[in-house]
Design brief:
The protein is an all-alpha fold and 420 residues long. It is 85% helix and 0% strand. The protein contains 14 helices and no strands. The chain is globular and about 60 Å long. The protein starts with a helix and ends with a helix.
Length: 420
Amino acid sequence: MMKQNTIVKTFISRFLILILNFGLVIYTTNMWGSEGKGTISIVIADLTIVGFFCNIFVGSSVTYFASKYKTEQILLYAYLWSVLIGIAVPLIFSIIRPVEYLSYLIGLSVLSSLLAANINLFVGQQNIRMFNLYTILQQVVHIVFIIIIVYLINITSVVSYFIAQLSCFAVLFITSSFQILRYCEIGRISFSKKIRNKLFDYGWKTQLSAFLQFLNNRLSFYFLEFFNGITSVGVFSIGIAFSEAIWTVSKSLSVVLYSDVVNTSNHNIAIEKTKISLKISFLVTLLFIIIILLLPAQFYVMIFGKDFSETKRITLFLSPGILAIAVSNIIGYYFAGVNKLRILNIKSVIGLIFTIISSFFIIPRWGITGACIITSVSYCISSGLLFWKFYELTEFHIRDFMISKSEINLLLNKVLRKNN
């Protein structure tokens, strides 16, 4: 069985992140409106694209090889790559098209990648407690710095969001580095062509899939900006924010699963852990979607402002895709954990092709509603392919989506024991 205490702690941390995310979204929409939210969404989308290039050495490759090679050797390449790519890729972006807040994008790219290297190392070392802590702190510290910059320093423009995020990444990178590097020895730092090649080979394959899936998630932003303007991006981004908030459940389970799978050689145990994570992710995500859809449309106007009256309708159209991705996140991390990356690339390519072709025809005609439909269908297509591939590996039944009474009792016992 999976480590129930670890799952519970990770779920609690992700739920807290979900609340903090919503708080931050509510604040930014009320503070800077749909246009300001659109600007933040585009910059963060650019940051995420840069992150995929950085993650070749600082993402899953750090986690996967943490138990196989010395920390000093892995982090050497991760840190150097973070600085190089974090500067180079934003500059390339600025040549291709105008990039607003370029200097902030460069700083955010470098610091977020350096921090990601440390956090992913914690996962590879099965130190999920530190992973959970720093994941929560990214939200908490960011919010604290926003309060300081806006209300004490009195910088009230949207740039305060990026200054706060830069400060947050810098502080957390320094503290996490201290925790990691105090156990490292300078004499062990060395360049190894073998390790570099293995990190790169594993990293680019996992990041290709993640990058393609990101384009499925974010390409609509750029189509909307082109056809409808930045304000429509801000409105649509709220629905996407709800999606990603709900996905914190599946992502938390995925991290625990991935950490376990890369550290086990028993195929049957890995399959069983995946099925347990899958059923929890499915049911909890379904519950969150139902709760969100039961809220009246006026509630979203009251929370986010008058520009966001379409939020409930956006969430409704996105909900099938949200549920599909919650399931495929789990299966995707299983395939990454056993180094079967080809299927991840195939499913992402298929979803991306659908998104690109349909966006040219649907978004100009139907705008935000069209973007929602395209995104949701793309999610369902790519997730369906991944689920079918997993289904080929193991017999699956409807009851596999249901938590048994014994599993509920076991989970409750773990929580109660922890609280006593």
